[in-house]
Amino acid sequence: MTYLEETRAAYDTVAIDYAKTLEDNLAQSPMDRAMLGVFAEHVLADGGGVADVGCGPGRITIHLDSLGVPVFGIDLSPGMVAEARRRYPHLRFEIGAMAELDLPDESLGGLLAWYSIIHTPPELLPSVFAEFARVLVPGGHLLLAFQVGDERKRVEQAYGHAVSADAYRLPPDRIADLLAQTGISVTARVVRDPAHELEATPQAYLLARRDG
């Protein structure tokens, strides 16, 4: 089974319980809200739509929508997309893979990947970031969030279910270097300590902009 098939199956399995567990998480995460707010201000100032790539059940998509951002969600998992559509029927959610986005070149003013690059093997991240650069307009904004580290973790239990998938903890400097190689320059980076029981490692946010 490929990593995409494993990831899709895992999130299809946990979709409903994942959504229930995390539905109030953002209200308890001031740093998350702050970074999303900065991202929203940049996008609104420069214009253009935003794709929430790896949107899950849409909890961050709806938050950006509440800030006035024209946003839609994309997720690999049909189960997650179904849950997002059920919860937020007025928003657009599509099934898709971040390495092959079904979007025209230079069609987005912003792209959010909120803890969604963590299942991509690190050696494949350059092609993912090249895809992000392709769909962003010159000057378009990117926000990444991920767990800090440099290791692979095998996930076999999640949200009360048996699953089988890999998750990668990533070094922020290395991710910034990979983005730069695709023409995306990091403009701000924040690393914070774990804030609650669901977080075992420091958490990173990288705010970046496509060159040009």
From TrEMBL:
Transmembrane segments: none annotated. It comes from the Bacteria. Residues 50-140 form the Methyltransferase domain. Gene3D superfamilies: Vaccinia Virus protein VP39. InterPro entries: Methyltransf_25, Methyltransf_Superfamily, SAM-dependent_MTases_sf. Keywords: Methyltransferase, Transferase. GO terms for molecular function: methyltransferase activity. GO terms for biological process: methylation. CDD domains: AdoMet_MTases (cd02440). PANTHER family: METHYLTRANSFERASE. This is Methyltransferase. It comes from Amycolatopsis deserti.
